[in-house]
TrEMBL record:
Segments passing through the bilayer: none
Molecular function per GO: ubiquinone binding
Protein's recorded name: Ubiquinone-binding protein
Family: Belongs to the ribosome association toxin RatA family.
Presence of the UniProt keyword Zinc-finger in the record: no
UniProt signal peptide: none
Length: 161
């Protein structure tokens, strides 16, 4: 079952990165494969959203519950759709250079066909998704002002993205 965890230092404040990730309704504007989002309900601490993702010939909609613990943690749990399960956690910790971001995702599709299809592109998909969030931070907040250019651990491609 695809699992990925990653740790990055981004040269923005934890509040900025938290707000960026929490803005689920904007995902279709910048996230690859995110075709549509419908926020079903929203409070300061939780939202329920239907996300439609598409890759290749596949297009699936699923509902997730997003728990917001501002500005430290965002937890995404699966409600209904094509998965057996989905767990996603973002943690934002202040760092001398900005924000230490810990990202974790673990899921399994009910369909063996979908599972096999995503298995082939999973690592590339996650890499592109992380890069999309970094680019989005630059679009919204401008060039990083804390610590350095693009964040410790960023690749040359991400610094130029």
């Amino acid at each position: 079952m695809p699992t990925h965890s990653e740790r990055r230092v981004l040269n923005y404040t934890p509040e900025q990165i938290f707000d960026l990730v929490a803005d689920v309704g904007s995902y279709p504007k910048f996230l690859p494969w995110c075709a549509n989002v419908r926020v079903v309900s929203s409070t300061a601490s939780e939202l329920l959203a239907d996300l439609t993702v598409g890759f290749g010939p596949f297009r699936e909609t699923f509902r997730s519950r997003v728990t917001l613990d501002r500005p430290r943690t965002i937890r995404v749990t699966y409600e209904k759709g094509p998965f057996k399960y989905l767990n996603n956690v973002w943690t934002f910790t202040p760092d001398a250079n900005g924000c230490l971001v810990d990202f974790f995702v673990d899921f399994e599709f009910r369909s063996r066909l979908l599972q096999a299809a995503i298995g082939v592109v999973f690592n590339e998909a996650v890499r592109l998704m992380v890069s999309a969030f970094i680019r989005r931070a630059r679009e919204i907040y401008g060039p990083p002002v804390l610590g350095g250019q693009a964040g410790a651990g960023a690749t040359a491609a991400e610094r130029s993205a």
